[in-house]
Design brief:
The structure is a homodimer of 135-residue chains.
Chain A lengths: L2 H8 L3 H9 L6 E2 L5 E2 L2 H15 L4 H12 L5 H35 L9 H7 L9
Antiparallel strand pairs in A: 1-2
Helix pairs in contact in A: 3-4
The first copy, chain A, binds a DNA duplex (30 and 30 nucleotides) through α2.
Chain lengths: 135, 135
DNA sequence: CTTGACCCTCCAGTGACTGGAAGCATTACC
DNA sequence: GGTAATGCTTCCAGTCACTGGAGGGTCAAG
């Protein structure tokens, strides 16, 4: 298989696949003409990585997970721990975004959004986010 | 004020403040010794940027917001629209993360996490995320 | 007078790609 | 058989928003 076929079948752009080879996630062979020659196994790995990436795992986690994928004697506990850590990070990010969202939504709701210059959003930013002190 | 004072009062690291000057967000003067000389106005701007960044606005949005901050004749509608766009982006990200989280939580729950190698997490990744077909 | 804290600039690296240029290889079509 | 369009190759640079570090000047205290 050439890179184009693998790209189509794995859903990853050729550029990304080359990048994954660069950083050592896969090692396709080479044809006589210098083209990368992918085997089914490479395709499986790429699909694996693609899936892991859509679940938000970092490349380094993907590397570890790939090793575990190939390791017949892996302990599922190791895999589970990586996933749990990642889950915790996701929860943190969600919490952060929700907090941002809440503040921002309040400000947006308070802004009349017309042609006049006064604007609670700008005022909040200008106060550095400290609560308003109308005294 | 030297950069250290401004860093402390704005909560931004000196490196970041220098970077903000580099990209033209602020323009502090210079003392005879070559040190940056910040005025109160610079500090206000930095606090403004810092706040906007914690709310997740990009640097380019900060630039625009700063312009609006300084513009006595701004229309609050313009500000509101930027904030609304940003809000929509945040909502998108939250949705994405929640979807990741849901899938990942299922997999984690299904993994017994002991010394045996069989693991629903690895299996999902290996299938590229396609639903299991036990037939 | 030296020590240490502070400041300066410039370069390089982060993560995970992505875009583009320059140049072979192959394939499709007439 | 020629030629034009793909497709493949490598390498360099850019993205975003910083961050780390080297190498060196400046300033206040003891």
């Amino acid at each position: 298989m050439n890179i184009g076929d693998v790209a189509e079948r794995s859903g990853l752009p050729p550029k990304t696949i080359r990048y994954y080879e660069d950083i050592g996630l896969i090692r396709p062979g080479r044809s006589a003409n210098g083209y990368r020659a992918f085997r089914e196994n490479d395709l499986h790995k790429l699909a694996f990585i693609g899936r892991a990436r859509t679940l938000g795992f970092t490349i380094e986690e993907c590397r570890t997970l790939l090793d575990l994928y190939e390791d017949e004697n892996r302990e599922s506990a190791v895999v589970k721990r990586i996933a749990e850590d990642h889950l915790a990070r996701i929860d943190e990010k969600i919490a952060q975004l929700k907090s941002m969202r809440a503040t921002l939504a309040e400000l947006v709701a308070a802004c009349h959004g017309d042609s006049r210059p006064d604007c609670p959003i700008i005022e909040d930013l200008g106060r550095g986010g400290r609560p308003d002190d109308p005294a």
